[in-house]
TrEMBL record:
The keyword Ribosomal protein does not apply. It comes from Streptomyces chrestomyceticus JCM 4735. Keywords: Membrane, Transmembrane, Transmembrane helix. This is DUF7144 domain-containing protein. The chain crosses the membrane at residues 12-35, 65-85, 92-109, 115-133.
Length: 140
């Protein structure tokens, strides 16, 4: 007796690993977004929280950097909530927002180096986790 298998059948191990990486990415994006929210609040509330760099090419008012971090951090938190549903739109937006936040945090290294490098690493881990997950594990 012959049995037929569907080519779209996923093993439980593959699905569990993919969902584990998706949850990891969602948690990392959520934590990083909250940290960027805090960083934005610090920049808006008190300019002296950050080191002042006099001859920096990308020098903005520190309140401006605070608003940038606050806005992008809020978007990261919202997108991370979408990742918990395994939605494809959330995966695409999460990779995009994490890439933008890596650039933003790179530009603010002179103001707060340890925090910037920490967030760059967290956003990098988020992009990695989302890129290694197979597309068929996400809902369209």
């Amino acid at each position: 007796m012959a049995t037929t298998t569907s080519p779209h059948h996923r093993s439980a191990g593959v699905t569990a690993a993919a969902s584990g990486l998706t949850i990891f990415a969602a948690v990392m994006l959520f934590i990083s977004g909250v940290l960027d929210l805090f960083r934005g609040i610090m920049g808006i509330a008190e300019n002296e929280v950050f080191l002042n760099t006099p001859n920096y090419v990308f020098k903005f008012d520190l309140t401006s950097w605070g608003w940038i971090h606050l806005a992008f951090g809020a978007v990261a938190v919202v997108v991370s909530l979408g990742l918990f549903t395994a939605a494809t739109w959330a995966r695409v937006l999460a990779i995009g927002i994490a890439a933008l936040l890596i650039i933003i945090n790179f530009l603010t290294i002179p103001y707060y180096p340890v925090w910037s490098i920490t967030l760059i690493a967290l956003y990098g881990a988020t992009i990695w986790a989302l890129c290694v997950v197979r597309r068929d594990t996400f809902n369209d």
